[in-house]
Known about the structure:
The chain is mainly alpha-helical and 119 residues long. It has 4 helices and no strands.
Amino acid sequence: MNNEERRLAEYLAQLRLCFIQENYQTLADQAAREQWTHQQYLGRLLEGESQRRQDRSIARRIAEARFPIIKTLDQFDWNWPKKINRPQATPPASKATPCSSPPRSKPSTASRRHKPNPA
């Protein structure tokens, strides 16, 4: 690694641009082969960095939510509650994804327990 590459690596690490640090040389080689403009090269680097940050943000939020398990609509028990209209709740031609969640129903008022007001 020459002095210029070392300095560039330090700047990218300091700015925490991990995707760019890991991929700038590979994309530079591809840009030279395919004759990209400077803007196209920079755009690809920034697109990758943005996507990585978005992916990490989503993963961090999912981890912070501490979901006990990930469920899909395919795993939902359609026998309870009985008032859910399955065709209406299921999107057309949907694929089960970890982000999809079953529709939530409100608990009945009979199951709620209220403390009497000490008046």
